[in-house]
Amino acid sequence: MIYNVIKTHCGNAKTLIAEAVRRKLIEENPFALLKSGSTPSKNSHYALCNA
Question: How far is residue 49's CA from residue 8's CA, in Å, rounded to a whole number?
């Protein structure tokens, strides 16, 4: 489970830095080759279960 959390945080970092590259605030993305999980879109919905 913690592995998935790490992958999600890495994905969020990659998305943030990629936007900075796109806006030409930095020259390259140091996280580009890092394996990561997906970043949920604004339209994502989650169902939580209290098991």
Answer: 20
